[in-house]
Amino acid sequence: MLFRSGNLLVGQSVGDASLDGRSGMLALGLELFASRPLFGIGYGNFVYYSAKVLGWGTYSHNNYIEVLSGTGLFGFVPYVLLYGWLILRGTRLVHESGEVNAMLRCLLAMTMTICVINLFSINDESHIVYFWLGVLVALESSVPRCNARMQHE
User: Fold this and answer.
1) Residue 68: is it exposed, middle or buried by C-beta count within 10 angstroms (0-12/13-18/19+)?
2) How wide is the angle at C-alpha 62 spanned by C-alphas 60 and 65, nearest 5°?
3) Global pTM?
4) What is the CB-side half-sphere exposure of residue 96 using CA atoms within 13 A?
């Protein structure tokens, strides 16, 4: 790492196969989405297209690209809206909450962490992520009732 940083400081270019590979996967995912923008190529089919185009079968290493290319706008929009709703609602509840503020901050941080992790991996077989999203939805929708009960007491 230090060697690479030093080379970059003196203007020497060092190729990064991982970065080049991810850039290729990102470009392929966007091309696949552009070819079928409404319904996509079918979830999980990125690996078959990458084998044909890139020469090796791999997933996209980016959950957003995987969902966008695989399900098109009909799958991607609800997927992104779920995360957006959780973040916006969580942010609003953190500002409105009293006693449960620490719990909400934790839930909001975990939701944002999942969003960042999705940039670098896919979680289609990581059932715990979807379980956790369900828990977040349930908890965030129960917080206003919890706050109302605390205010009445």
Assistant:
1) buried
2) 75
3) 0.73
4) 15
**Following DSSP, what letter does each residue of 55-114 receive, concatenated?**
SS----S-HHHHHHHHHHHHHHHHHHHHHHHHHHHHHHHHHH-STTHHHHHHHHHHHHHH
Angle between helix axes 63-96 and 46-53 (nearest 10 degrees) is 130
What are 73-130's pLDDT values in tens digits?
Answer: 999 999 999 888 888 887 887 777 665 667 777 778 888 888 888 888 877 666 777 7
Interatomic CA distance for residues 142 and 148, integer angstroms: 10
CA–CA separation, 64 vs 82, rounded Å?
Answer: 13
Q: CA 72, CA 33: separation in Å to the nearest integer? A: 6
Q: Encoding tokens for residue 69?
A: 């290319």
